[in-house]
């Protein structure tokens, strides 16, 4: 079987629902870097991010029949799967205990590796213009999107950290996402 060169989103979804492995390879080849960048920003360590990203693609493969194109784009759905998987991973007891038990030099070395790797992925994510799109938001909305989608905080955690009512955080995140949708539609 020859690899797929380009495929429209609706056709990709259809092929994935039919369990077409070439479509899955296409999905991995075209989206893994962006999803890995999201996971790495939340998880912070390559060894953990590698494990999480494998689970993300298994979840995508297993749950593609539940994807509803009426509710959003495939990319957004996959980003949410990656984000939730990363958050679940860092909140797991095993990971929290392992991080507590690391020696200081290990943490320093991992942080240096993390900074290099994040810079490389920022270049790739900037290729699709996400950084520029987010910069188009109001500063307070940009902060909320950064905390929720790049740092992995829940809405309640954001409310606690920023000392804002939970309802305000939810409303502002929703407004920011709606504004992002407007901005992204201008790029089409």
TrEMBL record:
Family: Belongs to the sigma-70 factor family. ECF subfamily.
Keyword annotations from UniProtKB, A to Z: DNA-binding, Sigma factor, Transcription, Transcription regulation
Biological process (GO), any one: DNA-templated transcription initiation
Top-rank taxon, per record: Bacteria
A Gene Ontology molecular function term of the record: sigma factor activity
Full protein name: Sigma-70 family RNA polymerase sigma factor
Entry-linked NCBIfam families: sigma70-ECF
InterPro entries reported for this sequence: RNA_pol_sigma-70-like, RNA_pol_sigma-70_dom, RNA_pol_sigma70_r2, RNA_pol_sigma70_r4, RNA_pol_sigma_r2, RNA_pol_sigma_r3/r4-like, WH-like_DNA-bd_sf
Domain RNA polymerase sigma-70 region span(s) in chain numbering: 27-93, 134-181
